[in-house]
Design goal:
CATH class of the largest domain: Alpha Beta
Structural class: alpha/beta
CATH architecture of the largest domain: 2-Layer Sandwich
Number of domains: 2
CATH superfamily of the largest domain: Dihydrodipicolinate Reductase, domain 2
Order of helices and strands: EHEEEEEHEEHEHHEEHEHEEH
Strand content: 15-25%
Number of strands: 14
Largest sheet: 6 strands, parallel
Shape: globular
Length: 343
């Protein structure tokens, strides 16, 4: 027996990827609905060998489904997620709207699966920021072994993290450079083709961006509030796949060899770490893949218990759609889909 599932935001990059992954992992679906805003009514999306037409979010009866996967803006989610949850289904939301709500679990299944048990408080589960998701998968087994004291992260985030408009802008600018000059930026504040932009999101008063703040706030909620974490988020001219240079300081000794073995044995991770010119992962190679990849694992001799590593993942998959589907699988395994009574 399968579930009645709705994808809200089905026409976007992540929404389409959710449909693809549900079919890839053979999630038990009896009926699938594609939901979008009124301007996308009738737009066709694919689910396996089926073509389904988008329905209007304002007209759809959410009490007729068991599970809703949402990939929409934070403002849209704030308006709709609670209403949908009250109608009965569990909502797995990909936006930032609910991540820090104390009554909403923020989940990466490899990191804090037991938090799904209190999803019935609002019938909403939050999906973390794409750059956070891959980071915490790599940090959790190391923290369990040696207790992380401090982390310094520099991200190299692809344009797909800014949606289809970001991907189109990189493509158009890259072509334009070789013809009449790159067109003026619209989605990004500066030219992204053949460039990097050390700014994602919006500046806070402390000089950090909200994208950077998401990473430490979400890591604190999912792993440990005592971890000190500082971040610089950078947009790079890569279509799909986020990369992170991660420096970790531990309370206890952990050498690179043991860390490598721990990561190899941990769920959701693949270690590609050989000391030659092709012995590491790049975002291009991670595109379309499920795992988080870890490379360049080495001791940091500048601190007492330090380690460096390189973390790469497909941000549309583990950073968004895949993690949402894995949460759905976790709910299914624990028999939590279809429980209609709010706590």
């Amino acid at each position: 027996m399968g579930y009645r599932v709705a994808i809200v935001g089905a026409t976007g990059n992540v929404g389409r990827e959710m449909l693809n992954i549900l079919e890839e992992v053979d999630f038990p679906v009896d009926k699938i609905h594609a939901i979008a805003s009124r301007k996308s009514i009738g737009v066709e999306v694919s689910f396996g060998d089926k073509i389904i037409k988008c329905q209007d979010v304002e007209q759809f009866d959410f009490s007729t489904v068991d599970l809703v996967l949402m990939s929409v803006s934070g403002a849209f989610s704030k308006q709709w997620a609670a209403k949908i949850g009250e109608a009965g289904p569990i909502v797995i939301d990909n936006s930032s709207a609910w991540r820090m709500d104390p009554d909403v679990p923020l989940i990466v299944p490899e990191v804090n699966p037991d938090d799904v048990e209190w999803a019935d408080r609002k019938n909403i589960i939050a999906n973390p920021n794409c750059s956070t998701a891959q980071l915490v998968v790599a940090l959790k087994p190391l923290h369990d072994r040696a207790r992380i004291k401090r982390v310094v992260v520099s991200t190299y985030q692809s344009v797909s993290g800014a949606g289809k408009e970001g991907m189109d802008e990189l493509w158009d600018q890259t072509k334009g450079v070789f013809v009449l000059g790159a067109p003026e930026p619209k989605k990004f504040p500066k030219q992204i083709a053949f460039n990097v932009i050390p700014y994602i999101g919006a500046f806070d008063d402390d000089g950090y961006t909200d994208e950077e703040a998401k990473m430490w706030n979400e890591t604190h909620k999912m792993i440990d509030p005592d971890i000190k974490l500082t971040v610089t988020c950078v947009r790079v001219p890569v279509m799909v796949g986020h990369s992170e240079a991660v420096n970790i300081e531990f309370h206890e000794h952990l050498d690179a060899d043991e860390a490598r073995d721990l990561l190899r044995d941990s769920p959701g991770l693949v270690v590609i770490d050989q000391r030659h010119d092709k012995g590491y992962m790049t975002p291009k190679e991670a595109q379309g893949e499920f795992p988080v990849f870890v490379s360049r694992i080495r001791n940091d001799p500048t601190v007492e218990h330090g380690l460096n590593m390189w973390v790469v993942a497909d941000n549309l998959r583990k950073g968004a759609a895949l993690n949402a589907v894995q949460i759905a699988q976790l709910l299914h395994e624990r028999g939590l889909i279809g429980q209609k009574t709010l706590a």
